[in-house]
Design goal:
The structure holds 2 protein chains of 2 kinds. Helices cover 75% and strands 1% of the residues of chain A. In chain A, strand 1 and strand 2 form a beta hairpin. Chain A has one domain. By secondary structure, chain A is mainly α. Chain A starts with a helix and ends in a 7-residue tail after the last helix. Chain B is α/β, with parallel strands linked by helices. Chain B has 11 helices and 11 strands. In chain B, strand 6, helix 6 and strand 7 form a beta-alpha-beta unit. Classes of the chains: A mainly alpha, B alpha/beta. At the A-B interface, helix 3, helix 6, strand 1, helix 16 and helix 21 of A face helix 2, strand 2, helix 3, strand 7 and helix 7 of B.
Chain lengths: 507, 315
């Protein structure tokens, strides 16, 4: 195993493969950082260029895009407060406040280093444990998926600051949005008001960009009001950062880091869940395990570490299903497998034994893409960090335009732009009414999947007790209850504490 | 004044020239109504370069417009100008989604260009099932009607194929909705469903003992699978393949269609395309405009009847 991997690395370090890997990582970083451009879109754009390459060159390029894209989202999230890709949502929670406190360098490097280590650690896990991890993934039938999503949804309670009622309402709105349009099983139109426009429902990405980006930008514009003239020559925040300090911040929290990585891997291994659920789960658990949950959302480094480590570990996790069964774990790996099919490589469980050079080449590319990503960021960081010194009056319109282009380019249809604008207004209204947005996004991510798996479970066997009697499913439901109780207890304790100590030293 | 007149005349001439410019003078877009990496995408990706060569080097772009069981792309194709610059990569789902009411786009909204490929279906079973042959499966299904679970995209080809077997063999399955082959593969490897509609791209998993091929829906045994019987041999009179072709929006001028048809027939013979199809377990199956038109008509009737028998007919 190890010698095969070493051979894989030895193979990949040839210029022939390093150049595509490097270019892929660079393109991925850019695509990941652009709000509205997802990793899937970036990889589809790259796909035609890989046809002329040999299979491993093509796959190395795409692996680079995947790794770079997962890290790239953090940069936009930390600097502008808008997730560059959906899975970077949780990085905005603490990364952006940290930037606002004048530490943009610390925020993005915490993200980049956590991504790098999370990804590398996940890579080591995978090499040792592909078999057992894959076996777990197969055990998940519709009951287990349903319970897992319920568990994920129970995190609404933990993600809510202030009013629990508003948090729950926000989560419900998210779930309700997914109901509109054709139902996912029998295609019965629901709440379409008889219009063509609403028949296919609200597409996830435009809604997400609308709610998050638009609401964020609008609040920024409000704050700008007049203050920009007075503080026009803003003192540029320190762009340099002590890497040793940032690294120590990560290494001194081994439990948080390893746990977030594990969450990322596990969610990555399970098909059809995706990075956004992984980062939300990791963030929520970091908060639950933390001694100071009240610091989350205010620029806590733990929030960034949890979010970014799990995000890149998730990439590693989705490579497991390719290695073990030759089936895609998510949309990005589906495109990678498609590229293999076009090159005539039969995907399947024998893939690793029949094409060891390619299989271990992918592992090697995955591992090498991380240091490459850090290297690119080291050169680019000064450039990205300039974003914080750009006057808001120039930055905001540009970001808005990028959001609109991203929403349109996804499916090349104009309806998506309308959805973006509509949900921009909804998001803004919710922010004004002090509703937390994170639960809404969680509901939006999970709504369809909860419904589909519930129906599948019932179609397979009408007995509802199976949700409790199947061991994995039952445990997950138990954990959901525990998670809600724990969050409420933490909330109460925090309230009690806050009354005793009025001001706490910030980090 | 003279200058202006000259300029106007010049502009008019330019405009006239651009109208008269020989088709094609700009890139041709092929709409694939599903995500990149799916079966349809994998077939049209290698077809793109072959068509490009046959069209004298005009760029052919594959545009993935996915969503809502492929109906978003269908609608987009239907609304595109009929100028030969937008084509639509389609398979049999266009009939079924129309009749079960998912989509309001019908095959009659388009002009046929050519049929290029057909992928025969194979009855594929989970490794956790106890049967090793189709006969054992049928016997089990007769003993336990409605107990054997089939994963399918409801209302699409993966639903209609097992439904044809049900009818021909006089058995009853239980359907569980799994959209798309990748999801079905996960479920069947884990034993959460018993059967599904598969094709030769799954051969790797069968060789590894992780899936079982029970029978092919072809007329003769596949040379790649000499040990797998056909349904016909077993007395189940079902032949089924997913057929993929190109359509153009209704009203596309005849000369453009003729030109496309010619390029298509040349591209279908391209050795690179043929090799890629062979590796994917798909047959190159070329039909010209006329042949494809009557193929679509027959297929439409077949799908309408099937939808009616399944109790899904909404039109």
């Amino acid at each position: 195993m190890i010698d095969l991997l070493l051979a894989g690395i030895d193979n990949i370090v040839h210029l022939k493969y390093l150049v595509p890997l490097f270019l892929g990582t660079l393109v991925g970083l850019i695509g990941g950082a652009l709000p509205g451009v997802t990793i899937t879109m970036t990889i589809i754009i790259v796909l035609p260029f890989t046809f002329g390459l040999d299979p491993l060159q093509g796959l190395a390029t795409m692996t680079g895009v995947y790794v770079g894209g997962s890290a790239g989202g953090a940069i936009t999230a930390a600097l502008i407060g808008i997730p560059g890709s959906p899975s970077a949502i949780t990085t905005t929670f603490d990364g952006f406040p940290m930037t606002q406190k004048g530490q943009p360098g610390r925020a993005i490097w915490l993200g980049i280093w956590s991504s790098c280590f999370g990804g590398l650690l996940a890579g080591l896990f995978l090499i040792g444990a592909t078999g057992p991890l894959a076996a777990i993934a197969l055990e998940f039938g519709p009951w287990e998926y349903f319970s897992l999503f319920v568990f994920a949804l129970s995190m609404v309670a933990g993600l809510t600051e202030g009013s629990l009622v508003k948090g729950l309402l926000s989560g419900t709105i998210g779930l309700a949005i997914t109901i509109v349009g054709f139902d996912p099983i029998m295609s019965v139109p629901r709440f379409t008001l008889g219009t063509e426009f609403l028949r296919s429902g609200f597409p996830f990405l435009p809604v997400l960009i609308g709610i998050f980006a638009f609401a964020q930008l609008m609040t920024d514009i409000e704050k700008m009001d007049g203050s920009e003239q007075t503080s026009a020559p803003i003192k540029a925040p320190p762009l340099t950062v002590s890497h040793l300090k940032v690294l120590w911040e990560i290494i001194s929290r081994p439990f948080l880091f390893i746990w977030s990585t594990l969450v990322g891997i596990l969610i990555g291994v399970l098909p059809a869940i995706g990075g956004s659920a992984a980062t939300v789960m990791a963030y929520d658990q970091a908060k639950k395990f933390s001694k100071h949950p009240e610091r989350f959302g205010k620029g806590n480094p733990e929030g960034i570490i949890a979010s970014e480590a799990s995000c890149n570990a998730n990439v590693g996790g989705s490579l497991v299903t390719i290695m073990a069964f030759g089936i895609p774990g998510d949309a990005v790996t589906a495109v990678m497998l498609g590229a293999m099919t076009i090159h005539g490589i039969q995907s399947g469980p024998l893939f690793v034994s029949q094409h060891p050079t390619i299989a271990y080449g992918i592992y090697a590319a995955y591992l090498l893409a991380h240091p490459i990503m850090v290297l690119i960021c080291a050169f680019g960081a000064r450039l990205f960090l300039r974003v914080v010194t750009v006057p808001k009056s120039m930055l905001i319109p540009n970001v808005l335009v990028l959001c609109v282009i991203g929403a349109f380019a996804l499916n090349n249809i104009m309806e998506d732009v309308v959805v973006l604008l509509l949900f921009g207004l909804v998001g803004y209204a919710l922010v004004k009414a002090r509703f937390p947005l994170a639960p809404l996004i969680l509901g939006l991510i999970l709504g369809d999947q909860i419904e589909v798996n519930l129906l599948r479970a019932i179609m397979s066997d009408p007995d509802p007790w199976l949700f409790f009697t199947r061991p994995i499913s039952g445990s997950l439901l138990g954990l959901s209850v525990a998670s809600v109780i724990f969050a409420i207890w933490q909330h109460q304790r925090h309230k009690g504490r806050a009354e005793k100590i009025e001001t706490e030293p910030d980090f | 004044m003279k200058v202006v007149t000259a300029a106007v005349a010049g502009l008019a001439l330019c405009a006239f020239a651009s109208v008269q410019a020989a088709y094609p003078d700009r890139p041709i877009k092929v709409i694939v109504p599903w995500a990149a990496g799916g079966d349809t995408d994998n077939i049209f990706r290698p077809f793109g370069p072959a068509l490009q060569k046959a069209m004298g080097g005009t760029t052919v772009v594959i545009a993935n417009i996915g969503g809502a069981s492929g109906t978003v792309g269908a609608r987009e194709a239907k609304g595109s100008p009929p100028d030969g610059y937008t084509l639509y990569a389609v398979h049999d789902y266009i009939h079924s989604t129309y009749y079960i009411g998912i989509s309001d786009v019908n095959y009659t909204d388009f002009e046929p260009v050519c049929l290029i490929a057909s992928t025969p279906s194979i009855v594929t079973a989970s490794p956790k099932t106890k049967w090793n042959t189709m006969k054992e499966m049928v016997a089990d299904a007769k003993a336990h009607p409605g107990q054997i679970s089939v994963g399918a995209t409801l209302g699409s080809t993966s639903h209609f194929f097992p439904a044809l077997i049900e009818k021909a063999a006089g058995i009853k399955f239980k359907y569980i909705s799994y959209d798309g082959l990748a999801q079905r593969m996960n479920a069947i490897l884990g034993g959460h469903i018993d059967l599904t509609d598969g094709n030769l791209t799954q051969k790797g998993k069968v060789d590894a003992g992780q899936l079982k091929f029970l029978a092919t829906a072809t007329e003769k045994r596949s040379p790649e699978l000499p040990n797998v019987p056909t349904l016909k041999e077993l007395g189940i009179n079902v032949e089924y393949a997913v057929s993929r072709g190109l359509l153009a929006p209704k009203g596309t001028p005849n000369d453009i269609l003729t030109k496309l048809e010619g390029a298509c027939s040349q591209a279908a013979k391209d050795p690179g395309f043929a090799e890629s199809m062979r590796k994917q377990g798909t047959d190159v199956h070329y039909l010209d405009r006329k042949g494809y038109a009557s193929f679509l008509k027959d297929n439409d009737t077949l799908n309408k009847n099937l939808a009616r028998e399944l109790g899904l007919l909404k039109r």
